Amino acid sequence: MDNATTDSAIISPAAALVGDPAKYGRVGADGTVFVITGEGEKAVGSYPGKTPDEALAYFVRKFEALASEVALLAARIKSGAMVPSDAGAAVTKLRQQVENLNGVGNLAALKLSVEQIPMLIEEHKSIFEARKAAEAAAKAVKRAEGAAIKEKLVAEAEMHALSENWKLTSERLKTLLDEWKKAPRLDKKADADLWKRFSTSRNKFDKRRRTHFATLLQAQSAVKSAKEIIVTEAESLANSHDWVATARRYKALMDQWKLSGRGKKNDDAKLWLRFKT
After folding, report:
1. Residue 47: is it exposed, middle or buried by C-beta count within 10 angstroms (0-12/13-18/19+)?
2. Which of 33, 102, 204, 216 could bridge 161 with an S-S bond, Cβ 3.0-4.6 Å?
3. End-to-end CA distance of the chain
């Protein structure tokens, strides 16, 4: 039997009733509802306080609900959305439900539709497997793309680890971190290994930057102290009348100023203004 034949044999809820519900059920004088099968009648229950038509309709709806489950299972199998083993378990459950159903409808057709589902599972197993293979391939492509992106980010971070362009490199490493956060996740180990390299490079640069500026601050502080001594002495000479000696001393102080090095720009400017004055 080909796919089209099997698929069309799986009945829909409406087709299972085959028209008039009275063909498959009736209501007795005492209100008992019976389902009519090829083997005879079977009492399925009653609905006290309702008209015969309402009672019959109630048990028809119970049949329709189960028929809908059968049709839904068939549709999921055909779409490749259901794991074959799960579909097999669902068939076992539906068999039990049909066997114990207290409803009115074409029970023979409903049973037949359930028994045809295992064949449907086999026929559409390839669809499920193809779908899973496609999903796996898509994930593999995404992982490969993510790995390429993160490898590139790591390589650049490692390149910047020894940079002395403190401001621009700090900004670039921040941008690289933002790009890392947006990149696809890899498997746990691959992500962890690449992140270790990335963070090691960032930490190495940050440590060097902190050391650089701590040393610079210390040096600038020493320069400021030295220039303050020079400026203080220069200010003390402002009222001297020993012109020759004072001129020589100013020249010596100027030489000391030049040799003392550069301090913070703002501190140097203020001290230089005092020195000239």
Report:
1. middle
2. 204
3. 108
